[in-house]
Amino acid sequence: MGLVYAVVNQKGGVGKTTTAVNVAASVALAGRRVLLVDVDPQGNATSGVGIEKSKLANSVYHVLVDDLPMEEVILRTSVEGLDVVPSTLDLAGAEIELMTRISREQVLKHAIEPIRQRYDYIFLDTPPSLGLLTVNCLTACDRAIVPIQCEYYALEGITQLMRTVDLVRRRLNPTLRIAHVLLTMKDPRLRLAQQVEEEVRAFFGDVVSPVVIPRNVRLSEAPSFGMPVVLYDPKSRGAEAYRQFALEVMSDDSQG
Amino acid sequence: MGLVYAVVNQKGGVGKTTTAVNVAASVALAGRRVLLVDVDPQGNATSGVGIEKSKLANSVYHVLVDDLPMEEVILRTSVEGLDVVPSTLDLAGAEIELMTRISREQVLKHAIEPIRQRYDYIFLDTPPSLGLLTVNCLTACDRAIVPIQCEYYALEGITQLMRTVDLVRRRLNPTLRIAHVLLTMKDPRLRLAQQVEEEVRAFFGDVVSPVVIPRNVRLSEAPSFGMPVVLYDPKSRGAEAYRQFALEVMSDDSQG
Lengths: 256, 256
Ligand SMILES: Nc1ncnc2c1ncn2[C@@H]1O[C@H](COP(=O)(O)OP(=O)(O)OP(=O)(O)O)[C@@H](O)[C@H]1O
Ligand SMILES: Nc1ncnc2c1ncn2[C@@H]1O[C@H](COP(=O)(O)OP(=O)(O)OP(=O)(O)O)[C@@H](O)[C@H]1O
Ligand SMILES: [Mg+2]
Ligand SMILES: [Mg+2]
Prior knowledge:
The structure is a homodimer of 256-residue chains.
Chain A: E1 3-7, H1 16-29, E2 34-38, H2 44-48, H3 60-65, E3 75-76, E4 82-85, H4 94-98, H5 107-112, E5 121-125, H6 132-140, E6 143-149, H7 152-156, H8 158-171, E7 177-186, H9 191-204, E8 208-214, H10 217-221, H11 229-232, H12 237-250
Parallel strand pairs in A: 1-5, 1-6, 2-4, 2-5, 6-7, 7-8
Antiparallel strand pairs in A: 3-4
Helix pairs in contact in A: 1-12
The structure holds adenosine-5'-triphosphate (2 copies) and magnesium ion (MG) (2 copies).
């Protein structure tokens, strides 16, 4: 029964898209039915799974703003079992257009309801902000995954993120919880990276995954070929780490 | 006469804050009077110059939303000649609060006018989005600096950024132009980084600085000490590259 995960962190460039794409692909390759919804106007998740954006007539924008049924924009990808709801530049105008709508924070949630049963997992990629698009994702999801880059600046945004998650839980989505914190881009040779990991584990405790995603050039090369790294270079350290993390996400099920 | 530069790119984590902080500091160390305005709710530029955010009563939020004169929030930094207008989490609420104001895109521009004469250069650090805060910075500035990370996903956002700059130029700020494109975090060993550099130079031509900022761990360590890298480790490759780039920015003057 479609479990919805939002991948969130308003700090930019921390690996949200890389996590959404590679976890979704890994879970699909493990035989589950998966949908990836790109809710970022940049559309990186869309091109990360090989969709050519310039040819698209409809996208998630039309679902949110024009109430187009989500099933009309769902596309298959080159990964067996992975579908995607693409995003284009149009989405940049959605926040302003949704601002005055009744229950503007729940538009995505209502759009996902009709197709939720068709998937085992649904992953939402969010933009680097805590605006209306990200709030829609936090309202529509069951659980959040928070990638945190092993860098000093990345620590600063955690308070703001926690406040927003709390606010959404209290007002819009009572069962919302942060299911996983994932440390990303870790270069084990750097003392700073080690310090950041220690601080994050001290702050979040067991929610922090034992899997740490290493800095790995294959992860940044894969999007230029329109493929998740688990297909582009399945033996790379980046692919291996995301497969491990995907197994952890899939084991969430049994905890309910 | 205070020349205002906005450092912009809606793609997250590309080095906007690192560029704003280190160019501002380098220009100040070269003897100019410099103001750094942090217009990002994350407040990374504020902590990047050593300001303790939790102790601040007022910030850029109060300037934008409560019309507090900017001179009341200007702080000195540990860098001789560099002042800062700090940002705190309050700023996260500013976009919604400004949304219905008369000439909401020009609030920052009007706030800077009274203090502009006191500085030779003013640098604006922006959040990873093209919302009202960034539009305010593009409207308040004379020129834009666009950092572009040497990564595939970083290429995707360029069209959207150019559209927004064009729109602001036509409607709000007729003299706005992109003065510098700066390639950041380049690891010269990676083929992908070389390809991205070639594409960016082909697209932007001479606007792309001959200076390329290398990936350099000293740049990411410096903020944890609350110092620009040009103070933390002046001999590092990162500091040297930003000093070079700052010289290029200062030579803009003579071109008017
Ligand atoms: N573990 C890694 N090792 C090396 N490069 C990585 C890794 N994870 C992500 N990258 C690269 O770093 C950049 C930032 O990652 P990504 O775009 O996934 O972050 P994001 O949080 O989605 O960014 P945004 O805030 O703009 O949405 C991308 O170019 C990506 O290819
Ligand atoms: N040349 C570099 N070499 C190594 N690390 C760097 C370099 N430039 C920036 N960094 C680090 O990379 C991370 C992203 O940089 P920075 O925060 O300046 O980007 P940004 O564009 O301001 O991000 P945001 O979109 O969240 O505002 C930071 O942790 C920073 O310390
Ligand atoms: Mg992303
Ligand atoms: Mg920044």
